[in-house]
Amino acid sequence: GHITAETFMAILRDKASGICVDSEGFRTAGSMVSVLPRDPTLPCVHFFTATPDPSRSVFKPFVFVAGLKPAPQVRSPTFRDDPAKKIPRFQSTVDRRHELYRRHQAALELMEKDQEWGQKLLQTLRDLEKQGLEGMNALLA
Hints:
Layout: H1 5-12, E1 22-23, E2 26-27, E3 32-35, E4 45-48, E5 60-62, H2 99-113, H3 115-140
Antiparallel strand pairs: 1-2, 3-4, 4-5
């Protein structure tokens, strides 16, 4: 058979198999699918959720290039008095969730409160994901 990025995305979203986990206090933290062309002149395209639970997330395309500056929405915050850098370590906690993660969590809460609206939102996200896949296919064609 022919395995595509979409195939892997579907596998990573499969809750019945136990690959996508959202129970018992544990949740799949994020997922990634990479397309590595055999032609070395073509770029590798990576799709990241950067958010938990791939069944309710969108895979976003990314190509590594020289001089790339990370988007601030997916950078975890830094702290002047970071408990990870103090001795003894981790005597306090800080919220390290990046902006995209926090917004995704808020959207999930809304989706659970209003399932009809939630399904519409999820469809919009999947349409955006499809556009990313189409863009990748055009780039690698």
